[in-house]
Amino acid sequence: REQSRPYRTAFHFQPSKNWMNDPNGMMYFKGWYHLFYQYNPFGALWGNIVWGHAVSKDLIHWKYLDDEFAIVGGPDWYDIYGAWSGSTTFLDDGTPAMLYTGWSNVSSEVQIQTQNLALPVDKNDPLLRRWYKSAANPVIVAEPWMDATKFRDPTEAWKGKDGYWRTLIGARLTDNVTGTAHIYKSKDFIKWKYTHDIHSLNGTGMWECPDIYPVWEERKDGLGVSASYPGIKHVMKVSLDNNKHDYYSVGVYNEETHTFTADQPSIDVGIGLRYDYGKYYASKSFFDQKTGRRILFGWVNESDSDLDAITSKGWSGIQAVPRKLWLDPKTGVDLIQVPVEELDGLHRAKVTKERFTLEAGSVTPVEGVHGPQLDVQIKFFKPEIKEDELEFLFNGTDRASLQAQEICSQMGAAHRGYYGPFGVLVLSAQDLQERTAVYYYLQVRKDRKWDAVICSDQSRSSLQTDVDKTVYGTYVRVLESEKYLTMRAIVDHSVVETFAQGGRTVVTSRVYPTLAINDAAFFYLFNNGTQDVQVHSFNAWKMESVDIVKLKL
Ligand code: DQQ
Predict the structure, then answer these.
(1) Is Nucleus there in the keyword field (predicted)?
(2) Comparing 100 with 409, which gets the higher pLDDT?
C-alpha cells in the first residue's frame, strides 16, 4: 500500500485503475463467484463503458480477469456507445445468459437504449472468460409509446408457471416524472414481448437497475428468483436517478396480474426505505447457489472531486462489501443486511471489552484498536428513559418534524445532547483535527416516545475543502423487546460502512483524511451526551489486506 495512495481500499473490490460503477451479472458458477462491473478502460471518470470481470472463491479475495473484457460495445449499432448494466440468468440447461443494455443511436441526434443477450463461448469454462453476442440482438427495443432513452438495466429473468421467462426493464413514462419497470416475457429467451408495467410511482423519475426477488417471511436463507411458495414475500428495489439512492419495499408480486403491490403504500418503492442512507447505488442482488444465500452488491461512488480522480488518484468507485440479505421477521418491512461472513476471515488482533461505562463527555482511545482497516462491533445497553427525563431529551425544541438527516447535521458529533451523540470516531487524527464520527442520538417525538437516530458525520473528516462532507443519518427502528442498540463500523481507508441494529439500517460514507491516514489513523470511543451510556460488549479487529491481482492462467 503506497503512502501516496492513502484512499485505495484494502479489502473492498476496486479495479487496479480507472472508473467503475454498477455491479453487474453476479453469479456463482462451477466453483467461482463472478462479478462484472461497469468500467471505463480509458479513464477515471464515467465513459466508454464495458463490462469488467473479476472472480473469487469467497467473495472477498478477487482476481481480475480484465485483459479481455466480458462485454464491449460495438461494432454493431445496438451497443455501439457502450455495454450498460444487466444481469445473469441460468437457462434451463444451466448456461448463464446475460441480458444487458446497449447504448446506441438511431440517428446522429437520437441516442437510445436496447436490450441484448450475451452467452459464454465455452459454457464449461468455470472462468467464463469469453462471451459472444447473440445474432438476434437487440432482443428488446422500446415500444413506440415508450421513451427509448429511459429504458435500461434488465433484471435476472424468472420463470412463471406458464413456462415463460420474465425480465424487468427500468424506465420512465413519457410524462417525464413517473418511474416504472416494464415486464417482458419470452419462451425462448430471444423473442421478448412487452407484457405489463409491474409497478409505477408518480414523482419518482427514472427507475434504474430494478431488482425483484422473493424472500422468506421467517427464514434467513435466500431463494432463487422463480421461487413461488406460501410463506414468501417479494422485495422490489429501484435506483432513483433523481437522487441516486436505492429504495426497496416489501410486498406481493402477482404473476397473473403482473403487478407488485407494496404491503404498506406509505413506504412504497422509491418513497420509503433505503438499502443504505449514505452513498450506495445501482445495487443488485443474486442467489448464491453455493450457500443458498441472497447476496447484495452495491456501488459506492467517490465524494472527492473529478480533478482528484483524474490527477492524484487515477481511479473512481468501489464496491461495498457484499451483504447477505433477508427479511426482518420481527418487523416484516425491513431487510436485514450484514457483511457476508467470509469477511470475518480477514479479522486479526481481536480486542474485546465487556460491560463498561462510556462516560458522559468522554473521548477515549481503546488499547490495540488503531489504523485504517478495522471492523468494530459494539452493543450498547438501550437506555431506560424515565418519564421525567423526557423533557431533557426534548432539548427545548421540537425537532420531531425534522428529517433524521437534518437532526444529524444539526446535532453533529460535537453537539452536547442528553443521550448521545455516542459512538466511535474513526479515521481520526490523534488530536482530532480530522475525524469521522459514527453515532447514535436519541430523539423524543411529539408523542413522547423516543427514536434512535444513527448518524455518520463526515463534516470534520478531512482538512481538504473540495470533498463532499454531507452528514448522513436516519432513524433506526428499535423494538420495545430489544435490549441493545448495536453498531458495526467497517473502516477501509476511504470508506466507512455502518450497520446499525444488527443490519436493519445501513449507512455508507466516503472520506478523504489528510492526516489520519495509514498508521496515523486513530480510533476513539466517545460520548458527547450529558448521560453515561453502558456498553454491553465491544469487539474490534484489524482487517487484513487483500491484494487483488490478475488471475494467472
Ligand atoms: N449505470 C449504467 C446504466 C444504469 C446506470 C451505465 C446506473 O445502465 O442505469 O453505466 O448507475
Answers:
(1) no
(2) 100
